[in-house]
Amino acid sequence: MPHGHIRELSNNCDCRLDGHTYRRLHNVTLNTPDGATQIDHVSLSVYGIFVLETKNMSGWIFGSEKQAQWTQKLYKRTFKFQNPLRQNYKHLKALEATLGVSLEHLHSVITFVGGSTFKTEMPANVTQGIGFVRYIKSFQQPVFSEADVDAMRHTLKTGRRAPTLATHREHAQNLKRRSDPTAERQCPKSGSALVIRTCKTGANVS
After folding, report:
1. Which residues contact 171 (CB under 8 A, 6 or more apart)?
2. Which of 30, 47, 124, 193 could make a disulfide contact with 94, Cβ separation 3.0–4.6 Å?
3. Mean pLDDT along residues 40-54
4. Domain locations in the chain?
């Protein structure tokens, strides 16, 4: 199934992070000055707030923390996509505004699923599969009280957009975008979005 990896990741997140220590919320849609943003997974704990963004991609992945765009090489083709750390920064800022906490206590975590291979050295918070669990557990210095965590969870549950059919469709579109083999990718020559053209021998990316 196209979104199976992401659903499996949600289950792993629930199973491998203790539910009492890490209060988890999934598919959180928050209002922003320019509309809304949807966050895959948020884990609230006394050790900080962890914001997990999932990328369902295969092939070779090249990138660094400061690059605006990363590169995916899939067979003989090369594609550009937005640096997921920059993408997740919008989520951090939305949580900062909603919760009224310092950005230093919000931690961006990226995990790639789908069988990709990193071909450049990645920051510690860019992981594969369930590697994000080890990164999250590396934070052991309390910065919040249990009461703070409870209050933040309440704020998010009451401040998020209601999980209506509309937000469900929006999330489904986001998942499709992540799972689409041409999603978020650009032609390295023209910079334009890639489209799929179907011919008699199958689908071509152009």
Report:
1. 27, 29, 38
2. 30
3. 96
4. 4-205
Question: Which residues are bridge partners to 50 per DSSP?
Answer: 43, 107
Q: Which two tokens stand for residue 131?
A: 């590697």
Note whether 56 and 113 are within 8 A (CB).
Answer: yes
Percent of the chain exceeding pLDDT 70 equals: 71
Paired tokens of 102: 């310092």
Strand order in the sheet with 69-74: 117-118, 60-62, 69-74, 77-82, 185-186
d(CA 203, CA 129): 28
What is each CA distance from 81 to 68, 88, 115, in whole angstroms?
9, 13, 17
